[in-house]
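Reminder to self: tokens first, then the designed residues, so the page reads top to bottom the way the pipeline ran.
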């Protein structure tokens, strides 16, 4: 059974930092791109970032570029999201996702390209 379990969400003040982690199990995730999406109340789910199966390529939404960093550890089957300089508009439920295509060459931002989703973790940026 494939599982993605996020952790690390919480409440942080504007300008602060949080680190999200995603633990994957149930298949060889080292062969699949991984990523993060988020959904704020009343808004559509949106792409945040993705990392290739090798970890050598990354892709960020313009809204988080320069502030967020995605990384992965294939030996531990984990994906992390370091979030710095957080803004109130970053408030959302953050979802860890795994690609449906093995060893994809070009990272995808479309949610339909990701087959597995975690349960989500809440991030709230507020003073």
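Designed residues (127 positions):
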């Amino acid at each position: 059974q494939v599982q993605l379990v996020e952790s690390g969400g919480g409440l942080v003040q504007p300008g602060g930092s949080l680190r999200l982690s995603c633990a994957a199990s149930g298949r060889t995730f080292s062969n699949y791109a991984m990523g993060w999406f988020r959904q704020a109340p009343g808004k559509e789910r949106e792409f945040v970032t993705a990392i290739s199966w090798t970890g050598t390529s990354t892709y960020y939404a313009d809204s988080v570029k320069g502030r967020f960093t995605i990384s992965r550890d294939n030996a531990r089957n984990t994906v992390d999201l370091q979030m710095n300089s957080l803004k109130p508009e970053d408030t959302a439920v953050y979802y860890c996702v795994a690609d449906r295509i093995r060893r994809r060459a070009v990272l995808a931002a479309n949610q339909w390209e990701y087959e597995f989703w975690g349960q989500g973790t809440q991030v709230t940026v507020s003073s």
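The longest strand covers residues 92-102.
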